């Protein structure tokens, strides 16, 4: 199948865009400059997106400022109706969205379908949650006064999203922002901007007014600098590396913006001797290899207690060895290409380091180009590179541990604290571990923890703020206190 045939798999042509979306209009760069979006499997060009000029990005911010008063005054019920219409359109074009995500990201089609459903879930949740933003009546300490607090939208917000979940990482910012009454300008990753532009297309069809939602494309440093310095922008939501997150936080300090930061992870998985073997293997397969291992909550370090270690290794190795590497557009593919050659090089670096430290290669091999086979190494040293850095690829490393205290020490030996996983049948162990592990989220006997219905976010260097549930809505709301005297 050549690239034109692959691109033609997206049958609703308005979804495959090559322009940015600003103030209800599709625009190209004033300079005519663009950058190609390539298919990770073939290297072929899917589309070309504009490298916008600073004035064009500023125009999107200005449009969001103009649109904000009317959108903020729109009843939450009416905003919810528009989000529900958008939900219908996403579900209607589910197949095309999944294929578009696979084309630009490379992930297996079955994973892309999961992302579409996950991303749509945020739109569904916040279509209703926006109507549940309640105020407070406060008992007055003296006669003749009424005290109350009400919630108001923060204002113009921006979203900076990564390439690994190009639709879902945007909808979990976009949906609560619009539900709260904020306007939003989104900057998707340059490697995977097409899902964001497709969302803008459907948002327009759903009736989102001009200026309420814009998608800008171009040089990340220029756009990020404009976002952070702008006094108009009152809120930044970012998903990406801790390094970039820290830079955005520092640059936003002079204008004292509201920030939500979902940053780097180094998730530990603790598998105790009393774990159910089948459950533990299932959890490890999902937590490690979901999305080709390119997930911020991937199980980066898998610690297995010595009593079950050998049995776990044998069963886990069989499952890893049975995975199929190939074209993401084929439904039986388990691992597709990684996002770029640099991602494969990092996996190779971690693999080589582990082997040099005495690890044993059980399944897989070094990757080439953008293709990295699912790989398993055992007897990994506790200080190996893959235990200290986020691998972000389909390489699983197993480390043996002795005791509960040993496991918790290893799990917390990181400056990061996004997600963690515990496999055990002991309620005592589970209760102690979920209390003692330093992370924002814990999966118990499961590797699939993300849901729009629960708060998502980390501690330590893994970020601040929450996304999902009513907590995600609160990130886009200010609390205003009113003291009414003379009553």
UniProtKB/TrEMBL annotation:
Keywords: Oxidoreductase. CDD domains: ALDH_F5_SSADH_GabD. It comes from the Bacteria. The keyword Transferase does not apply. One of its GO terms (biological process) is gamma-aminobutyric acid catabolic process. The active site is at 262. GO terms for cellular component: cytosol. Residues 26-482 form the Aldehyde dehydrogenase domain. GO terms for molecular function: succinate-semialdehyde dehydrogenase (NAD+) activity. InterPro entries: Ald_DH/histidinol_DH, Ald_DH_C, Ald_DH_CS_CYS, Ald_DH_CS_GLU, Ald_DH_N, Aldehyde_DH_dom, Aldehyde_DH_Superfamily. Belongs to the aldehyde dehydrogenase family. PANTHER family: SUCCINATE-SEMIALDEHYDE DEHYDROGENASE, MITOCHONDRIAL. This is NAD-dependent succinate-semialdehyde dehydrogenase. It comes from Sphingobium nicotianae.
